[in-house]
Structure formats: structure tokens, C-alpha cells
Specification:
The protein has 230 residues and is mainly alpha-helical. It has a single domain, classed as Up-down Bundle (Ferritin), CATH 1.20.1260. Helix content is 71%, strand content 0%. The protein contains eleven helices and no strands. The longest helix has 28 residues. It is globular and about 50 Å long.
Length: 230
């Protein structure tokens, strides 16, 4: 069922947006945010009724949704949402997928994470092909301000949070051209894949931590509770 869901999404994207990359990316990023919302909804529900509490997972999934939001804002700045038809398709698909993923996550979190692993893998390859095909054109264009703010000049705490395989501050993209922006987005998708794979491991509930929590060693904390990096 997971493969069918992803396959249907990919089929629609390939059929409708083969020659329209920015609208394609707009639709893709609108839908890509949705599973993280679904995970957060269920996790908050579990916490509210006292079944399970895992603050780190809430941080990581929120950071993932925050990252996808900025991908979406970048696509909007490039005109990807100019057509009402594209906006309608993206939002309708997002609404449907939200409830599907909530149901799957309630039944089988591992399956819900596998869904997002496949979506992010598709996104990675889509951006990689786009970079190969349009490299020279992208290198000649300036980056949008929203990309500069998110990747370079803004608060990068949440940028580090979704990359659970990395130490905070170890990845800082260079943003000088539009090509650099799409390199960063493509590499973000790779980091999402790694996190989704890790969330499917049998001991994920004890091994998945937010990056900033993972570098905190309580035994080395001072009396003022300032975290120490190890």
C-alpha cells in the first residue's frame, strides 16, 4: 500500500509537471510537509492521553516540517504557485494524504516512516536530475532572499535539528547562486531519508535523539545547566 501511495503521487507529478519544474516542486513540497504534521499530531495525542512521551521526536519532526516549509517558500518565491490549478491540486492532495498518514501512523509507525523515506528518495532524485539538466542556467541566477535567510543568515538551530546523523553546525551550505540553493535542497532530502530510515529501526525509541540533545552530557553540566559538547 505504501508503494502504491507513493507510486500514484509520482505518476501524477510525472504526468502533469514533466516540463514545469517549479510548479512540480511546489506541489511536491506541499505534500512533503504533510507526513511530518501527521506524525506530530499522533505524538501529541499519545502524550495528551498519557501513552507515550518522547520530546526529542517532536523536536525532530517539527524541524523536518520547518525545513520542508522553507523549501515550499523558496518554490513560491520562484513562481511555483502562480496557477490556481497547481495550488488546488497541491492542497487537495495534502489534505487527503494527511488523514491517510495519520491512520497509518496510528497502526504502524514504521510503515508511515517508510512512506516518507520513499517520498524523500524521490525528491532527492528529482532535484538531482534538475540540477544536472539546468546547471548553467541556475548558476547564472541569484538566490531568493528566503533561501539566504534560511540557509545562511538566520537562526540555524532548527536546520540542525532534522539532521539526526550529523553533529550540530557540521553542515553549512554555501548560498551564492540559485544552483547552490537547489544543491542545499537536494542534500536536505538526503538527510531526511537518513532520519526516516533511523526511525524505522527496532530500537529507534531509545536511539533517536534530536542532534542538540545528543551532544548534551548531563554528567558534564555546570551548576548553571549550560550544555557541554562532547
Amino acid at each position: 500500500m505504501i508503494k502504491l501511495l507513493v507510486g500514484f503521487l509520482v505518476m501524477v507529478m510525472n504526468l502533469l509537471y514533466k516540463t514545469r519544474p517549479y510548479p512540480r516542486f511546489y506541489v511536491l513540497e506541499t505534500v512533503a510537509r504533510v507526513p511530518y504534521f501527521a506524525y506530530l499530531s499522533v505524538l501529541h495525542l499519545y502524550e495528551s492521553i498519557g501513552l507515550w512521551r518522547k520530546a526529542d521526536w517532536l523536536k525532530v519532526h517539527f524541524a523536518e516540517s520547518w525545513n520542508e516549509l522553507h523549501h515550499l517558500l523558496i518554490m513560491e518565491s520562484l513562481g511555483g504557485n502562480n496557477s490556481w490549478i497547481d495550488r488546488l491540486l497541491a492542497r487537495t492532495t495534502a489534505l487527503v494524504y494527511y488523514w491517510i498518514i495519520v491512520a497509518i501512523y496510528l497502526i504502524s509507525p514504521k510503515s508511515a516512516y517508510h512512506f516518507m523515506e520513499l517520498v524523500e528518495e524521490h525528491a532527492y532524485h528529482t532535484y538531482d536530475e534538475f540540477l544536472t539538466e539546468y546547471a548553467e542556467q541556475l548558476k547564472a541566477e541569484a538566490p531568493p532572499q528566503i533561501a539566504i535567510q534560511y540557509y545562511r543568515d538566520g537562526d540555524l538551530y532548527l536546520f540542525d535539528e532534522f539532521q539526526t546523523s550529523r553533529v550540530p553546525e557540521s553542515r553549512r551550505p554555501t548560498i551564492e547562486t540559485l544552483y547552490d540553493v537547489f544543491i542545499a535542497i537536494r542534500d536536505d532530502e538526503s538527510e531526511h531519508v537518513k532520519t526516516m530510515v533511523a526511525c524505522q529501526s527496532t530500537n529507534a525509541t531509545t536511539t533517536i535523539h534530536s542532534p542538540h540533545t545528543a551532544v548534551f552530557d548531563p554528567s558534564q553540566a555546570t551548576t548553571t545547566n549550560v550544555p557541554s559538547k562532547v
